[in-house]
Amino acid sequence: MDEHANVSMCDNADVRDDCSNAVCIDAMRIYDSCSDKDCIKNLRVFFTEDVQAQVETAVNVRLRDAEVVTVTTDLEPVPFNKGFYSVDITFFFSLALDLYQTAGGTPTQVQGTATFNKKVILFGSDGSVKVFTSEYGSDPADSDNLSLPRVTVQVAKPVALSAKVGLCSDINRFPCSVPQCVCNCVGGTPTEDGQRCVSVTLGLFSIVQIERNVQLKVKSYDFCIPKKECTNTTDNPCEVFSRLDFPKDQFFPPNICDTNSAGFNFGCGCNR
Q1: CA-to-CA distance for 91 and 87, rounded, in angstroms?
Q2: What angle do CA 97, 45, 115 make, to 5 degrees?
Q3: How far, in Å, CA of 79 to CA of 5, rounded?
Q4: Which one of 193, 200, 214, 226 is most buried, by most CB atoms within 10 A?
Q5: Backbone angles phi, psi at 210, to 5 degrees
Q6: In this structure, what are the phi and psi dihedrals at residue 17, rounded to the nearest 5 degrees?
Q7: Greatest CA span in the chain, whole angstroms?
Q8: What is the pLDDT of residues 81-119, one digit of tens each?
Q9: What is the per-residue pLDDT for 259?
Q10: 25 - beta bridge partners?
Q11: Comparison of pLDDT for 220 and 37, the residue scoring more
């Protein structure tokens, strides 16, 4: 059977399994991973000098939102434990807060930053080869030539739990050295000066995994050819509007049977 006949036969779903071939691919294999649920208490928030001046006279504070701006990692082999690595992880947060200068007064919205550090130990196997690819230049400093595995950190949006203002001596102090991208989020370089500080409590969900570049043999069925046609855009606004569905729910709000309220699930994670 020639090649064209073989391709035609493989278009049939009933015999597609018979046409699969084992192919070798280059991929990142996860050697070890862990998930964590951290409740970070009494975490100091750092502000720029002008905002810190407002913190000194604030009587109350409210945490409105929290975001992870960036995460840095440092990987070191664990002595006397071959194949295991210590992963030092630092999270950098951007925090939106309301500062109250008087009880019941109008708050001032400010931005601050905080850092949180944690360390985990994972198995990453042992490798001694150096990898050079055409993606990098000939300079060893620019190439991916290390035998260490790669660390990947996945983090969900932090849960903003609480905030308070008090004396700095009563609050955990983490290093204030932050990347430039974090400084841009808070409008400048944070300061560590001040007598009064803001502390927050955050809930953080994260997954840490150690990966290595390996060659794997997998079963191949066919190329991933898109079956969906691209929709042409148009400059005619009325033509774009004509493709929109009529918003029935806006005119006829759903009743209790349609909203799954019979199970008392209101979408906040509390099933009563």
Answers
A1: 13
A2: 120
A3: 58
A4: 200
A5: -110, 130
A6: -60, -30
A7: 85
A8: 888 999 999 999 999 999 999 888 899 999 999 999 999
A9: 59
A10: 216
A11: 37
pLDDT at 208 over 80: yes
Q: What average pLDDT score do residues 216-220 get? A: 87
Determine the 3-state secondary structure of 14 from DSSP: helix
| CA dist list (Å): 198 to 44, 58, 91, 172, 235 | 6, 10, 18, 10, 51
Residues near 59 by Cβ (< 8 Å), separated by ≥ 6?
100, 101, 102, 103, 165
Q: How far is CA 189 from CA 44, 96, 159, 233, in A?
A: 15, 16, 25, 44
Q: Judge whether 69 and 94 are in contact, CB under 8 Å.
A: yes
End-to-end Cα, the chain, rounded Å: 64
**Alpha carbon distance 28, 198 (integer Å):** 42
Q: How many other C-beta atoms lie within 10 A of the C-beta of residue 16?
A: 13
HEC profile of 123-151: ECCCCCCCCCCCCCCCCHHHCCCCCCCEE
Q: Which of 34-38, 79-83, 221-225, 229-233 has the lowest mean pLDDT?
A: 229-233
What lies within 8 Å, CB to CB, of 185 at 6+ separation is: 67, 69, 94, 111, 113
3-state DSSP: the chain helix, strand, coil percent, rounded to 5? 20, 45, 40
User: Helix H segments across 1-156?
Assistant: 3-10, 49-55
Mean pLDDT of the chain, nearest integer:
79
Taken as a whole, the chain contains a residue count of 272
Report residue 263 as tokens: 């199970």
Asked if residues 86 and 119 have their Cβ atoms less than 8 Å apart, the reply is: yes
Structure tokens of 170? Answer: 């009563």
Burial class (CB in 10 A: 0-12, 13-18, 19+), 196: middle
